[in-house]
Structure formats: structure tokens, C-alpha cells
Write a structure and sequence with these properties.
Elements (H helix, E strand, L loop, with lengths): L12 E9 L3 H23 L4 H13 L20 E7 L5 E7 L5 H11 L4 E3 H10 L13 H12 L15 E6 L5 E7 L20 E4 L3 E7 L1 H7 L1 H8 L6 H7 L5 H16 L4 E7 L4 E5 L3 E7 L5 E4 L1
Parallel strand pairs: 3-4
Antiparallel strand pairs: 1-5, 1-11, 2-3, 2-6, 5-6, 7-8, 8-9, 9-10, 11-12
Length: 319
């Protein structure tokens, strides 16, 4: 039986992120503004008694259209100088997901991922096949060049002329985006969208669109969206790890020893990031809502751009 929150106390919940990375001081304001706009877009849907799937789509489309982040417009270029986008959306009630990878002509890949979730018998489509599905279902196309910013073209040239290095992306090293929402009916949706890594090999797919890695939603446990070094996140299947741990109160032991009382949601988020560092030897972060809508976020990078709606309806935004 699918667990749902007590209908007498049901309140919508929303959390979003714009990536865990070494966000420089000069980029903090842009990140905060982008996160606020995404929260406003998603929260407006939920306050109007809308569905979580619409709220998550609205929040992520806002982030995909914001050049501050590495998703949609402003994504990193691959080795051949092209943008290839990945996205996933997952339904916590049915465990059905819709994912797309390596698409080049879709302005908002999260909309295509939703179409796969709702209209396809498959759970993942890639490349030309995903774009054919988009054409058949009325998803808006874009000229691939419209997704490329001068900033990213310049960084790509520096990487090609020298070698790929983070310093070529001082204001835009990473920035995968994601969101998790629960509506007033208890329906949970999680989603992630990314442009991947700069100078990646054409066709490379990271964790973001992979069920259980970059995203997972289970109404009996919670919903998760991850960000960071994709190959490392895939090694530990971090999003699924988080939902599994949400059933295990033993996760709280570490917190009680070090920091006193903590929510299970926060303890789980912290435990997953510790595992990412310990077993995959890399960096990243995640956001989550537990089955009752309690938010949590954790990361082992200098900063992560994220925000959530507090119980009183105000927005908590970091960094």
C-alpha cells in the first residue's frame, strides 16, 4: 500500500536545486535569483491546488531557461562543440519514470521527459529517437545554436587549445538542476535536468537521467534529485540509496553522536554525501523531500544552489 500523508494535515512541499559546485562569490546573486524564480514558479502551481508534476515542470523549465545553470540554454559543450541534454521525471506513486538523453534540438528537455513518462511505454529514449518522439508529441524544438552561449563557446575553445580545466569555467563550472514536489493530494514527483560536463565525449550520459542515480521518487519513502560528479554518483546509485535509507532509523545514530537531534531526512542526505566521498572519492550533493514533505539538502562542495518552501510559506535559499 502506498504511503500518503495524513489528509487532515496535507500541505504542499517543494525543494529545488541549481547544482553543487565551487560557486564563486560573483555568481552567488545570480544563483539565488534563479532559485527564487524557480521556487516562485513551482509554488504558484501548488498554492493553486495544482499538481506536483506541473509544479516540478514549471520550476525546472525556469532553471533550464536561466543561463546561470548548466541545463537547457547555457549548457556546457561536448568535445565536438555541441550541446547534448539529459533529463528525467519520476512519479513516486507508480515508480514510473520518463527520461531522455543526448538530445540536441529540444529547448526544455524536462518537458520531453514528462512526455515520455505520460505517453510512452518506455522509460528512457535517447538521441535521434528521443527527438523523433518529441516531434510526434508536439514538444518545442530549438536551433541547436540557440542553446549555445558565447561564454560556453569561449570556455570550450580554451579547453581545446590548452586542456580541459575548471578554471576555464570560473563562473559556470557546473549547475545541474532538479526539483521535488508533493501536492495537496499527496502526489510526489522528482526530476533532474542537465547539460552534462564540458568537453564530454559525444553521447556521454551521466547520472542525471538515470533512474536511481540522478533522480528517484517513491511515495513510501521520498523523492530525490542529485547533482555533482556523475560517474561517482552512478557508482553508488545515490538517489535510490537515499530513498532506501529513509526507511532506516539507524541513520540517525551518526547525527546523535555529533550534532544532537536531527531529522531522518537530513541524516539521510548527509549519509549519502559521506558515502559519495568515501566510496566514489568525489563531490556532489542532493536535495530530497521525505514522504511527509520534510526537506533536506547536503553537499560536499564549497556551495550548492538550492532552496525550499518553509512551513510558513517563506522561501529558504542558499548559498
Amino acid at each position: 500500500m502506498v504511503r500518503t500523508r495524513n489528509p487532515r494535515t496535507l500541505k504542499p512541499s517543494l525543494i529545488v536545486h541549481g547544482g553543487a559546485w565551487n560557486i564563486p562569490d560573483e555568481a552567488v546573486d545570480d544563483c539565488r535569483r534563479g532559485i527564487r524564480r524557480a521556487l516562485e514558479a513551482g509554488w504558484q502551481v501548488l498554492l493553486g491546488d495544482g499538481q506536483s508534476i506541473d509544479a516540478v515542470e514549471a520550476a525546472i523549465v525556469t532553471l533550464e531557461d536561466d543561463a546561470t545553470f548548466d541545463a537547457g540554454i547555457g549548457s556546457h559543450l561536448n568535445r565536438d562543440g555541441q550541446v547534448q541534454l539529459d533529463a528525467i521525471m519520476m512519479d513516486g506513486a507508480t515508480l514510473k519514470a520518463g527520461a531522455v538523453a543526448a538530445v540536441e534540438r529540444v529547448r526544455n528537455p524536462i518537458r520531453l521527459a514528462r512526455a515520455v513518462l505520460e505517453k510512452s511505454e518506455h522509460m528512457m529514449l535517447v538521441g535521434a529517437g528521443a527527438e523523433k518522439f518529441a516531434a510526434e508529441h508536439g514538444i518545442e524544438f530549438a536551433d541547436p545554436e540557440d542553446l549555445v552561449l558565447d561564454r560556453e563557446r569561449a570556455a570550450w575553445r580554451r579547453c581545446r587549445e590548452d586542456s580541459h580545466a575548471a578554471e576555464h569555467h570560473l563562473t559556470h563550472e557546473m549547475g545541474t538542476v532538479g526539483a521535488v514536489a508533493i501536492d495537496s493530494h499527496g502526489h510526489m514527483i522528482a526530476a533532474t535536468s542537465t547539460g552534462g560536463t564540458c568537453c564530454k565525449f559525444p553521447g556521454r550520459v551521466g547520472d542525471s537521467p538515470l533512474i536511481g542515480c540522478g533522480c528517484y521518487a517513491d511515495a513510501e519513502a521520498g523523492g530525490v534529485s542529485c547533482t555533482g560528479h556523475g560517474e561517482g554518483i552512478m557508482k553508488i546509485v545515490m538517489a535510490k540509496m537515499a530513498t532506501d535509507l529513509l526507511h532506516d532509523q539507524r541513520v540517525l545514530i551518526h547525527h546523535r553522536k555529533k550534532a544532537g537531534p536531527q531529522s531522518l531526512a537530513q541524516a539521510v542526505a548527509d549519509a549519502c554525501v559521506r558515502k559519495l566521498a568515501h566510496r566514489a572519492h568525489t563531490t556532489g550533493g542532493l536535495i530530497l523531500l521525505d514522504a511527509d514533505g520534510l526537506p533536506a539538502a547536503a553537499f560536499n562542495t564549497p556551495r550548492m544552489a538550492y532552496g525550499f518552501v518553509e512551513a510558513d510559506g517563506s522561501f529558504k535559499i542558499a548559498p
